[in-house]
Amino acid sequence: MNKRFLFTVLMVLVLLIPVNSLAAEKKDESKGEFEVPSHVLNISKENTYPNSTEDQEVVEPSELTQELIESVEVPIENPDLIKMLNETSINPSPIAFGYRGMVYIGRWPLNYESSETNINWEYQKINVNELNNMGGESEKKVNYNQQKKKEIKGALTNKIGDPDDIKKMMLLQAKDKTELPLAYSTVIGQNTKKENSYGVPAKKYGELQAYAPAVNEKGQVTFGEVYFQLKGNNKSIVVKNVTKQGIGAWIPIQDYVSFSYNLK
After folding, report:
1. What's the CA gap between 263 and 112, in Å, rounded?
2. Which residues, if any, are the signal sequence (predicted)?
3. In angstroms, what CA-CA distances link 115 with 23, 112, 218?
């Protein structure tokens, strides 16, 4: 009996090891896709402008809300809609036999499905530091020093209804995929400096360009008309006239700077 049990355990372990290894490999590949390259540096400690983190509120559905949204074929992931459902109290009378009613609560963006997430490490040029060593006899150094305060803003790439709700859903998914500090607005303060230095040989001219990176998020939003339906003492959600629309957005990466160095 013991030998048979041990054999069964060993077989289970042998079967699980390749699956776990494959899952870990896929996770590493996904993470590597958004890995920060060596020429992009974190300036959160050096930034003279303290950016506030744009943490989106994660709204958990109540037990009732969870029951209601699970009964609908179209996924409902809009945090603002879930919050409204959490705060709504509908209690039909237990003796309301034969009662029927439909309450319209509006046309909502129900969910966002990401189809493509890319990073442009040179989304917006924010600074240039130059050093002219044409008449010099020895190597000199040029360092990053932010000349002017720069605000980098993201935005949706095309017009769409309920843009604020959609921006929230896109931000949540982009953050989850990239694991980077994203916000629709970030600021690089004047006189922000970094210790990284670049050599400018004698008889040369050095130019250090700095860029703000951003994520380009693309996907599809599902819209629908949402109703509360009451039948006797039962209640449910009904979604009608479902439509889909493609959408894109640029979302800056907060407190990161990409550097490009050229000698002339």
Report:
1. 45
2. 1-23
3. 21, 10, 6
256-263 and 40-42 strand pairing = antiparallel
Q: How far is CA 2 from CA 11, 164, 200, in A?
A: 14, 62, 73
Residue 250 · residue 119 · CB < 8 Å: no
Indicate the Cα dihedral angle 148, 154, 157, 162, nearest 10°. Answer: -140
Q: Strand runs (DSSP E) across 134-203, as ranges?
A: 140-145, 150-153, 155-156, 185-188, 193-200
- Return the pLDDT at 236: 87
Which ranges of the chain would DSSP assign to H, the alpha helix?
Answer: 2-33, 63-70, 79-87, 163-178
Q: Helix or strand or coil: residue 54?
A: coil
Locus of tokens 């309301």? 96
pLDDT digits (tens, 9 = 90+) for 127-177: 999 999 898 889 999 999 999 999 999 999 999 999 999 999 999 999 999
CA atoms of 140 and 178, how far apart (whole Å) = 38
Q: What is the domain partition of the chain in residue ranges?
A: 1-33, 38-263
Q: Residue 53: its pLDDT value, please?
A: 73
Q: What is the Cα–Cα distance from 240 to 103, expressed in whole angstroms?
A: 12
| pLDDT at residue 107, rounded to an integer | 96
